[in-house]
Amino acid sequence: MNSGNPIDLDAVRFQYASDGWSLELPRLRIGVERFTCIVGPNGSGKSTLLRLAAGLLKPVSGAVRLDGKSLSGFPRRALARRIGFLPQESPPLFDYAVEEVVRLGRYVHSGWFGEADADGQRAVDKALSDVGLTAQRLRPLSHLSGGERKRAMIAAVLAQESGLLLLDEPTAALDIHHAAAVMRLLARLGRRGRAVVVVTHELNLAALFAERLLLLVGGRVIADGPPSHVVRAEVLREAYGDDIMVREHPETGGPLVVARRCGAGDAGGNDAD
Amino acid sequence: MPISPNLRARLTLGGYLAVALAALAVLPWIGAEPLDGEQLVAFFRDGQQTPHAQILLQQRLPRILLALLVGGMLSLTGATLQVLFRNPLAEPWTLGVAGGAAVGAFLTQAFPALNLACGPLSSTQALALLGAAVAMGMVWLFARRAGAPTVHTLLLAGVTLSIVCSGAMLLLVYIVSPFEVLSFNRWMMGGLDVLGYRELVSVLVLGMPGVLLLLSLARAYNHLAFSEELALGHGVDVARVKRLTFLGAGVATAACVAVAGPIGFIGMIVPHVVRCLSGFDYRMVLPCAFLLGGSVLAVCDGIARTVIAPTEIPVGVITAVIGGPAFLYLLGKR
Fold first, then answer.
1. Is A266 within a domain?
2. Is A129 contained in some domain?
3. Residue B151 maps to which CATH number?
4. Which tens digit of pLDDT belongs to each residue from B186-197?
5. Is residue A132 part of a domain?
6. Higher confidence at residue B5 or residue A253?
7. A85 touches chain B (CB under 8 A)
8. Angle in degrees, CA B18, B23, B28, rounded to 5
9. What pLDDT is stored for residue B151 in this prediction?
10. Interface residue B236 vs chain A (CB under 8 A)
11. Minimal Cα distance from A54: which residue of B?
12. CA B99 to CA B270: how far, in whole Å?
């Protein structure tokens, strides 16, 4: 497993053809810290940023580089050996079993008709145990809870054994217990030598586990740094309006975001969509 | 005792192969004319040309082999189109691709001047390929333009295209030779009545490269069954897989239709049955669909040959009568 996979986004600008919305990034390097969370309101460009970093979207101007080489110069397979990407929601057409899903992550390591070699099996077993689904390996996806399904999809990316993981909302639609479990797992993977970058709406979990937070608003990065630097009331108000307060996490002393009971009416600057 | 996945895969494939071989062994003996053992013995032992040996070797055997091949190719193609269009009811006929190919192939029948052949390849195949390409392009553009079309809109477009193609062919027949409407049945409903092995060879030569191409993409379909983005994240070159699938599916469909006309539903139902019986891994689904699809079409053709003997029904009538209701059932279940 190689961990030196920082991605350089060099004055990247991206625009969807349909409307005027654009994402404009400063010189940005991600994938150095062990666990980075990208946060921001809906429509702020979090997923777009992640897709650019994964090479799924091409910037209108500027460049996205790995090893100083533009991502578009990498064949898909070579890129996937270095960077694992998990999109938001991918409901499958067919009801695959958990282990079949995890084995999909081995695509880049095998030939035409796949392999059943010891290495591949070991990686699959390890990914399953990392996400705690070893006992459910033969169950079809439809028999799993939402949290377990999410973990199965994460396990597939883990089995890919890329040094950098880019995950789009791995905690979406999970209850607080399962969301925290997923974040804990990702933080642990970070400690074991992979770099993990996650898009999430879970500000508090992000503040609790991440080493670095990127706060996006309207396609711009408005704060970038450790949670204590980003999760401050005066910073967050710019993104989420005046309806929030920042307190102290009773366990860690870190920042904790809570909503006010009485909002400031229809506070501007809220959700863009 | 748990059996290893490898052994299990081999047993499964072996099972489907056994079914296909059984069809090949049994079906030649069934037909309008009961075969006379003495005549066959006379041929095989003494080399004497007898009518029944001719029936067996020049009519039934090539026809059953053709059914195995065409049924297999249509089913395998259907299985890949179902993933490509993210629609479990897609197949060459319901998408209108078979209809488009039939119009192309039909042109050489309606206008004999267009009929050119070069070895096993012919202008019929070329025009079938063109028709399939046009139809597939139309359905694909429709699927793109409508954003993410529901299961129903895409099928509505495809089936409508099939009907338009049938209508166009009927119109041509009535204009060109109104007294020969019956003989053009094959181009409306599909049929496998052939004499000798020429057609078999031409299907093999054009269609097999397409089939092998689709088989080589088997693993990628497992990723695409989730989403294009997930497949890209796993390292699948999605754009390439799509291009090659269009190419392989178009070639295989055209090869089948150029010989047998548009045979419907087989390519939709067989992959369903295979996935129910032996799981969703496309490395298994594709070869198993090929083997089972061939067997099913051979059996359907056996029914078509015998049920109103001495006359025959186009085999597409049988697959439509069985497959249509199954299609409606699956459509309703979703």
1. no
2. yes
3. 1.10.3470.10
4. 777 788 888 888
5. yes
6. A253
7. yes
8. 145
9. 65
10. yes
11. B233
12. 19
ipTM score: 0.89
Domain that holds residue B112: 5-333
Tokens read off for A174? 């999970």
A117 close contact with B: CB closer than 8 A:
no
Q: Is the pLDDT of residue B143 over 70?
A: yes
Contact B235 A108 (CB under 8 A): yes
Assign residue A148 the CATH number of its domain: 3.40.50.300
A151-202 per-position pLDDT tens digit = 999 999 999 999 999 999 998 878 888 899 889 999 998 888 889 999 999 9
CB atoms within 10 A of CB A99: 21
The count of structural domains within chain B is: 1
Task: Please report how many Cα atoms fall inside a 13 Å half-sphere around the Cα of residue A14, on the Cβ side.
Answer: 27
A84 touching B (Cβ < 8 Å): yes
A149 chain-B contacts, CB cut-off 8 A: none
Q: Does B233 touch chain A (CB under 8 A)?
A: yes
Asked if B225 lies within 8 A of A80 by C-beta distance, the reply is no
**Rg (Cα) of chain B, in Å, rounded?**
20
Indicate which of A47, A107, A153 best probes the interface with B, i.e. most B CBs within 10 Å of its own CB. Answer: A107
Report the residue of B86, B232, B238 to disrupt the A interface, i.e. the one with the largest count of A CBs within 10 Å.
B232
A105 found inside a domain: yes
Cβ pair B207, B251 in contact under 8 A: yes
Contact B97, B85 (CB under 8 A): no
Chain A residues touching residue B274 (CB < 8 angstroms): none
* Of B82, B235, B283, Cβ closest to residue A114: B283
Q: Residue A163 — φ and ψ, nearest 5°?
A: -75, -25
